[in-house]
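Progress against Task 2.4 (sequence-to-structure conversion) is shown through the following example record, which the project officer requested during the mid-term review.
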Amino acid sequence: MPKRSNTFQRLVASVHADLEGWKVTESVLLRDSVIEEDREIDIVGITTVHGYEIVLSIECRDHARPADVTWVEGMAKKHEHLPTSKLVLWSRSGFTKAAHRKAAALKIDTVLQGEIEDKKWAEIALAFVNGMFKYVEPKFSAFVDVEVNEGMHERFQPCDHFSFGTKKLSAKQNIGALLPAIYGMPEIRTIVLDNAPEGESNFYVEWKFPDEIYVWNQEKRVGRLFRLGIEIKTSTEASSLEVRSTVRNEVVYTVATAATQRGEIDLLVKEIVGLPPALSLRFISKNNGRLT
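Structure tokens generated for the chain above:
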């Protein structure tokens, strides 16, 4: 059975990810001792205390209406024969009064997502609401335009094996070694993000050089370097963000998820008043591969 997740579950997992001494995992299979089958649990935290294993099981409900008694009873029954030491239920929209009473009687903790509107420092979380995500995949290809004869230019692409330098200088800079630094320039990233339209696109960035800079192909001088250019082919998707935020101990946790054709992208943010926000990006491909 494939493992399932959603934005709210990932938010709850991020809240518990920093528990010291605990191993916290999403979508865990625990064995039911009666039916001898695995049951999927949204989030499981495991620790050891004096040689005893403690299993914290967390189930999440991402519905617009408060969780009712039926859901609480169903979760209690589900965990009756699982190795759960403590069961905690999270509901985005809270619980009915009857559900609270039932959970308390069953010694199950209930947690409401919590509102963040009064946390003025949570600028990123508040800005994400009704936001859009733009995914741009660039492919770079460098070229050089060389004046091989006076007034005559020739383009070489690719040009990674070429070098450039002054006419009389023996030490030359390899273009291929320079390209990674160019591709990683903040200015290049800004150009790509600002100018890449949705769908496929192709545009250029170029630098012109003074007259005394020349190009070599191995040990043979080809001619004067007139232009170094970067061809940038982009594939761009724009998706609406699904955002879930909660506040715990004056820390605002936010997960913003965007679905793309390649998979899902999560932006995880932790904001604390007076400190820079902590951000991490996670990509979950459609074949269940995960890059963090």
